Amino acid sequence: MAKLIRSLRAAVRKRFPTSFELVYDNYNFLVFGFCTTERASDCLVSLAAQAKGVSLCFYWGATLPDPHKALHGSGKQVRWIRLEGAATLARPEVKTLLSAAAEQAKHPLPASGKGSTIVKSVSAKQRPRRTPAR
Asked: Kind of pairing, strands 20-26 and 53-58?
């Protein structure tokens, strides 16, 4: 799993070299968000890793054109693709979605430079889970 996560992270970083990379934990996920600014709300895509695998999440995926029906999910905002490996990112329909996500961003990616990595801890700020009622 660690090898898969590293290869996917490198591939997305190569695709968005000037993006800010926000790294955080959130309950069952380790997330690498690739953003146009240092704010999570300006995220283009993220890699969400869990024990079952890794997904490529499009923060504003519900508004992306998806003629090949590659995206999963039915929420108001986020859509995702399950990643088998870095080769999935090279599929034409995925490359089109990545480009569309960058084009519709509220803030453009920096034109030059190297993006920085910012490590955050989200789960420490969240309320603890409730124990189920019996």
From this structure: unpaired
Asked if residues 34 and 17 have their Cβ atoms less than 8 Å apart, the reply is: no
Report how many domains make up the chain: 1
Residues 118 and 20: beta-carbon distance below 8 Å: yes
**Domain-embedded: residue 128:** no
- Beta-carbon contacts of 73 under 8 Å, excluding residues fewer than 6 positions away, are 61, 62, 79, 80
- Side-chain half-sphere of 47: how many Cα atoms within 13 Å? 26
Write down the pTM of the prediction.
0.84
Which domain does 110 fall in, by range?
2-117
Residue 106 lies in a domain: yes
Matching residue, tokens 């029906």: 69
The pLDDT tens digits for 43-91 are 999 999 998 899 999 999 999 999 999 999 998 999 999 999 999 999 9
